[in-house]
Design goal:
Elements lengths: L6 H13 L3 H10 L13 H9 L3 H28 L4 H16 L12 H11 L1 H18 L2 H19 L10 H13 L1 H8 L7
Helix pairs in contact: 1-4, 1-5, 2-3, 2-4, 3-4, 4-5, 4-6, 5-6, 5-9, 6-7, 7-8, 8-9
Length: 207
């Protein structure tokens, strides 16, 4: 069988490649003239866009940060919705979700470097498990408002999602296993290791 004629393979490739588009980097470069990979934390996500661009133009920073957050979330959702329309089973949808997070975190457009995976992760999880994701997003927002530290707030939201997913879905519909959730969580946690180190050193910046 020709792999490129297989619907699932095409969906997997689309998820990984689309999720790899570094919207934060492109937006900051185009509209603010800054290379966020060489400034702030060096991350391509919304938080670093906001932090770096704020130094030049606070209003523009908020706009670009919000757009980056939206685009990073939606790029994982798009392929899942297409797969749903095509009638793909739950196992395929979860594989797409995992590949979207991997694609963002290890972008083929950035020599397999990338973001932290939070926006893309919560985007795909919002489609796959809406109620646990909404609970996690609320926890994330409350933590962010209180702590003013994006990294720890994101990890708290992630923990909230994992707990909520087990409470609401003891067995994940269609696949029974929580394995895809743990893979996504592990990737996000792995990408946050530098932030965790800075937290222990009390060097992690606030937003």
């Amino acid at each position: 069988m020709d792999l490129l004629s297989n619907q699932n393979i095409l969906l997997y490739l689309a998820a990984f490649i689309l999720a790899g588009i570094p919207f934060g980097y492109l937006l900051a470069k185009q509209f603010a003239g800054v290379d966020i990979k060489q400034a702030g934390s060096g991350n391509i996500g919304a938080t670093n866009v906001l932090r770096v661009v704020k130094e030049k133009d606070p209003k523009l920073a908020k706009k670009l940060g919000a757009i980056t957050l939206f685009l990073d979330a939606i790029k994982g959702i798009v392929v899942i919705l297409i797969a749903k329309y095509l009638g793909a089973p739950e196992g395929v949808l979860w594989t797409i979700a995992v590949l979207a997070v991997l694609g963002h975190c290890f972008s083929i457009f950035l020599a397999f470097e990338g973001g932290k995976g939070v926006a893309t992760g919560f985007g795909v999880l919002l489609v796959m498990m809406p109620i646990p994701a909404l609970i996690a997003i609320v926890v994330w927002l409350v933590a962010a408002k209180g702590l003013k530290i994006s990294s720890i707030s994101s990890l708290i939201g992630l923990i909230a999602f994992i707990i909520a997913s087990y409470v609401i879905y003891p067995e994940v519909p269609g696949i029974t296993s929580h394995a895809p959730i743990w893979i996504i969580a592990f990737v996000i946690f792995y990408k946050h290791i530098p932030n965790i180190i800075r937290l222990f050193k009390k060097e992690e910046g606030k937003v």
